[in-house]
Design a protein that fits this description.
The protein is α+β, with helices and mostly antiparallel strands and 1090 residues long. It has 37 helices and 36 strands. Helix 16 runs antiparallel to helix 17.
């Protein structure tokens, strides 16, 4: 087996070890073993395209032991007996996915099927013989070269200087009129311009014969010769790219321009380069020493490389010269310490193998110091030591690093894992998490596309580039996080340019960096990488034993979480958060720190770790909500069942870390997936009673929520986070359930009457009617007049059957509350309403006190509003209160500010005179008194409250006038009395006689009665004029009647009637009644019917 290579681009992995090619050849094509699909095929890693100019095998006919190539002459055939006795060895190989085609030294081509070669192990995979073909026709001659063309379903075989073509599928020879097996072939090369991909329509083949070169075109259906030209000497090796062929003959290296050859310009078609080495005689032994065989290969588009040595000895220093098709030197010159036995090109590297088994890798992009890596095979046996390098069409070395897996075991074993324990259990690849990225050119692939196969006598090796994901993982394991993440950033930038998205391998590297930083207590870096790598949050939760117990069966076992094995091992190395904190504390503590310091540091580290967990879970939740919960399978790297785990864990973390607002928002979010049973049980047991109620609230358990809040309000479950009665009432109202509100109202009347009254306003009339008023009233009455007043008023608006039963209590409560309001004010403001009314009355004598109170109520005057409500109750018809009891209450609580209320009650009692006395002499509400006495039919008059209707007339106006005149005597207020009398005389002059002038005080000015007197004089004069006019009108009517009668008699003649004549309107007999005769129509009717 090969030793480990130095750090570089390539690693060696065994493809097949110790193959018994003789046994495989004896099975024959009819003895095929049943072929099981390989892991490569199951993972979809076969059939990738081969880039142009890569993996080109230049040694078309290298020998297995002495480096001798075939010449143009047919070799002498040995007997079949000796050929069968010779042990078979591997000479050449080509690989197409999981299919391996091996050419042997005894003339056979063997078709093998292999499982995938992985980076995780250096052991050879399982290999099975599919079929075998004897291509040497029993000669036992070695197979010099095999070229697989999957696009054309062809296998080109060079054996014993004979070129044959076989079908790739069954290794049956292809024969046609255009092509038959070609003998005398020295070497063959494929046109490297056309890749050997499965989709290629045709392939070009360049064949060197004795003194000619032939160009063939191979398709799926035919093999056709396109061109042939002669050469001066035998060709030792050649390589072909498009219109150019680089070859080495007996004299020199040269480049042939095929376009000129086709055009017939043979003189200019060949471009000589350097002479090839010639045989020489050893001066010591006298023997002729043959130089190493020349080597050419394609190293790019229209670029070739050839080898030239300083001497004929294979150990002489050798140069690899790179030229263009025009012979110009390009890139750097490669330097080899000895002449390579075989070289291939894998862009941009040239890989060479030497006789000692050493393999060198040279970078053609470097101007100097091109050697970048060496492989040492010195310790290998001769049979396993590589002797040749061959190209491969498409092969892969895969890695399981970024492929997610789960531990496959039964439930009992999973339960016995007990956390993050490593167990030797069967693991299953989780295909739903995506296959490794194997497309060429994509960054961070977990599979290496192999172009080079090292061939030994009985073994095959892949020379594969190490996947970048493994190199980055090695940097992370070595704590070189920044260097590793720089490579990850470069890969992600390339992915963005290619619009290929983030691969699973990139995520694996970021996740591994996150877990590594967490293990080193680099919490900020860990959080950053957790967010970038989108680690399954359930895996992180398994580090916290308390959360694992809290989540219980909701959290899947750690072994069941899909995760790369290497990442799982990193979690297991951490253990749990307690071990992590212990290690972190030990690193940070000073040598002689006290136990208190150690405990404080551990507590701080635990708090920081919980905060990191909380922030990452919050980030996951935001991402899930942004992508939509239903699209997690397509967008998220973890399963949808992680959603309730994240929300439920966040609920506890928010409570533990005192994130009140965030926890409330989480529990109240309609899209929240918190598992209520788990969260509610934890909150209740931990004393987070308010959060417990929020969980119940989110689940719609109204009764349980209210019971919990009752316990919090009463102090049975103390919790300062609760919003108190305000939050309680808001929720009760939002339930929009009248039965619930009624039940809570009844409870609140014993706990908080004010809150009960606030809830009462939201009860519908139907619910209010169901209140047990006696029970509630007994509780509310003890709390004062205001609660009782509010309660009774609500009963009234809802028309509760027992509302009238409490009317007297309501009125009494209003009276007491108004009195308390007045008595509570400062003395100089106690009569604010009355004085304000007097000022307004000075400008408008017709302003009533009731109207003034209504205006003051609108301006938010509390006292005025109380007066207005009380007056509305007192003015209700019929009265629902005990009039006598209310009047007694008014007298008992009288403070001089409830005159209008007393007047209203007196009117209701029918005591109009006393009511007027109160209105005029005590309150001074003259407009109200006038409306009561003079216009009792007015809808706004208090007269409608009287038990018996009041009559109006001149006597009422006169009585009111005398009351106004008495004001000047009883109140010494001549000014107001004079104004009132003047206004009354002015408005009711027609209803008062001149005799009232005798009651006017003599000292009042004449201006008071001047208008009244003038008005009466005008009335007397008008009456006289009206009498004269009436008399004139009557005379005019009589004269007009006589004129009409005379005209009718003259024009018509007399109208004669008998006693049977009836009225045309009422159909009654006219008799001796006055009648009217209409000359135009001839109708006769009573004068009263006109």
């Amino acid at each position: 087996m090969a030793a480990n290579p130095t750090f570089g681009e390539y690693v060696v992995r065994a493809l097949a070890l110790g193959l018994d090619v003789d046994q495989a050849a004896r099975q024959g094509p009819g003895e095929k073993t049943e072929r099981r699909p390989s892991l490569t095929q199951r993972l979809g890693l076969g059939g990738a395209a081969s880039p142009k100019g890569k993996d080109k095998e230049a040694d078309a006919a290298a020998s297995s032991g002495n480096d001798e190539g075939s010449d143009s002459r047919p070799q002498k055939e040995h007997g079949h007996r000796s050929a069968r006795k010779r042990p078979g060895k591997i000479e050449c190989v080509d690989v197409v996915g999981s299919d391996v085609y091996v050419g042997t030294s005894n003339g056979h081509v063997l078709h093998y099927a292999v499982d995938a070669v992985t980076m995780e192990t250096q052991a050879a995979p399982a290999i099975r013989t599919v079929q075998a073909a004897d291509v040497g026709a029993g000669s036992g001659k070695r197979v010099e070269q095999v070229i697989a063309l999957p696009g054309q379903n062809k296998l080109v075989v060079l054996c014993a200087s004979t070129l044959s073509v076989y079908r790739l599928a069954d290794l049956q020879p292809v024969g046609s009129a255009a092509f038959q097996p070609l003998r005398g072939v020295s070497c063959v090369a494929l046109d490297e311009r056309v890749p050997r991909a499965a989709g290629a329509e045709a392939a070009g083949l360049c064949v060197a014969c004795l003194r000619s070169i032939r160009l063939y075109r191979l398709t799926a259906d035919d093999v056709r010769l396109e061109h042939e030209f002669s050469v001066a000497s035998g060709v030792a090796c050649l390589s072909h790219y498009g219109n150019f062929v680089c070859l080495a003959d007996d004299e020199s290296y040269k480049i042939v321009d095929l376009r000129k050859k086709r055009a017939g310009a043979d003189d200019d078609a060949e471009l000589p380069l350097l002479p090839t080495q010639q045989p020489h005689t050893d001066p010591e032994t006298g023997r002729v020493v043959r130089p190493p065989r020349p080597r050419t290969l394609v190293v790019g588009a229209n670029e070739f490389m050839f080898l030239t040595s300083s001497g004929a000895d294979p150990e002489s220093d050798t140069l690899g010269v790179i030229v263009t098709a025009l012979g110009e030197a390009r890139r750097g010159t490669l330097q080899f310490a000895a002449y390579p036995k075989s070289v291939v090109y894998d862009d941009p590297f040239v890989i060479a193998v030497f006789a000692s088994g050493r393999v060198e890798v040279h970078d053609t992009t470097q101007p100097d110091a091109t050697l970048v890596q060496t492989f040492a095979f010195a310790d290998s046996s001769d049979a396993a030591r590589p002797k040749r390098l061959c190209g491969a069409v498409s092969a892969f070395v895969t890695t399981e690093t970024a492929v997610c897996e789960t531990i496959d075991t039964d439930a009992a074993d999973i339960a016995a894992l007990g956390g993050l324990q490593e167990q030797e259990l069967k693991r299953d690849v989780v295909e739903m998490d995506g296959l490794p990225n194997t497309e060429p050119g994509k960054p961070f692939s977990s599979a290496s596309s192999v172009r080079v196969v090292a061939v030994a006598a009985d073994s095959l090796y892949f020379v594969a580039r190490e996947p970048p994901v493994l190199r980055v993982a090695e940097l992370i394991d070595g704590q070189r996080i920044e260097e590793a993440m720089a490579k990850v950033d470069a890969a992600q930038q390339q992915q963005q340019q290619q619009q290929s998205g983030t691969t699973a391998e990139t995520q694996f590297c970021i996740q591994l960096a996150a877990v590594t930083c967490l293990g080193s207590m680099l919490l900020d870096d860990a959080l950053q990488y957790f967010r970038r790598g989108l680690l399954d949050p359930r895996a992180l939760l398994h580090l916290f034993p308390d959360l694992v117990r809290y989540l219980g069966p909701l959290l899947v076992p750690f072994a069941r979480i899909p995760m790369p094995r290497r990442l799982r091992a990193a979690f297991i190395d951490i253990g749990d958060v307690d071990a992590l904190i212990a290690r972190g504390s030990a690193q940070l503590l000073a040598e002689h720190s006290s136990a208190e310091q150690a405990e404080a540091l551990a507590a701080a580290l635990m708090a920081n770790t919980l905060e990191v967990l909380e922030r990452y879970l919050r980030s996951c939740r935001s991402l899930m909500r942004a992508n939509g919960y239903n699209s997690l399978l397509d967008r998220m790297p973890f399963a949808p069942d992680a959603v309730p785990v994240v929300d439920t864990a966040l609920a506890r973390l928010y409570a533990t870390n005192a994130r009140h607002d965030r926890l409330c928002a989480l529990l109240q979010d309609p899209a929240s997936a918190v598992v209520g049973d788990l969260a509610a049980g934890y909150f209740r047991d931990s004393g987070y009673y308010y959060y417990y109620s929020l969980v119940l609230k989110a689940e719609g358990s109204v009764r349980q929520v209210l019971d919990a809040w009752r316990s919090i309000l009463t102090g049975e479950w103390p919790d300062e986070r609760f919003g108190g009665v305000d939050e309680y009432l808001r929720y009760v109202v939002l339930t929009d359930s009248q039965s619930t509100m009624l039940e809570e109202f009844t409870w609140l009347t014993f706990y908080d009457v004010d809150a009960a009254l606030r809830l009462l306003a939201h009860l519908a009339d139907g619910a209010v009617e169901q209140i047990d008023t006696d029970q509630v009233f007994a509780s509310i009455e003890a709390r004062g007049d205001r609660p009782m007043r509010v309660f009774i008023e609500r009963l009234l608006t809802a028309k509760h059957p027992r509302a009238s039963h409490y009317m007297t209590c309501l009125v009494s409560a209003y009276v007491r509350q108004i009195c308390e309001h007045h008595e509570g004010e400062e003395s100089h403001r106690s009569d604010t309403l009355v004085r304000g009314y007097k000022r307004a009355q000075a400008d408008d004598l017709r302003l009533r006190f009731r109207a003034y109170l209504s205006g003051a109520s609108v301006q938010s005057d509390t006292c005025a509003a109380l007066h207005t409500r009380l007056l509305g109750i007192l003015a209700d018809r019929p009265p629902q209160y005990d009039v006598e009891a209310v009047y007694k209450c008014l007298n008992d609580q009288e403070t001089g500010f409830m005159h209008l209320e007393r007047a209203v009650v007196l009117v209701v009692m029918g005591n109009i005179d006393d009511a007027l006395d109160v209105l005029v002499n005590q309150l001074g509400d003259y407009a109200e008194a006038e409306m009561l006495l003079v216009t009792p039919d007015n809808p706004q008059s208090l007269a409608r409250l009287a038990p018996n209707p009041l009559s109006s007339g001149v006597s009422s106006i006169s009585w009111l006038l005398r009351m106004y005149l008495d004001l000047s005597k009883s109140h010494n207020d001549d000014e107001m009395s004079a104004r009132l009398v003047t206004d009354l005389l002015h408005r009711y002059a027609d209803h008062l006689g001149p005799d009232i002038l005798a009651d006017i005080p003599d000292h009042w000015p004449l201006s008071i009665v001047k208008t009244f007197v003038s008005r009466h004089l005008q009335l007397l004069k008008a009456q006289e004029q009206a009498s004269n006019v009436q008399r004139s009108l009557n005379q005019a009517r009589a004269f007009a009647s006589k004129v009409d009668y005379t005209k009718a008699v003259c024009d018509r003649g007399p109208v004669k009637l008998d006693y049977s004549q009836t009225c045309c309107v009422c159909n009654k007999l006219l008799g001796s009644s006055v009648f009217v005769f209409e000359a135009e129509t001839g109708d006769i009717k009573h004068i009263s019917c006109t």
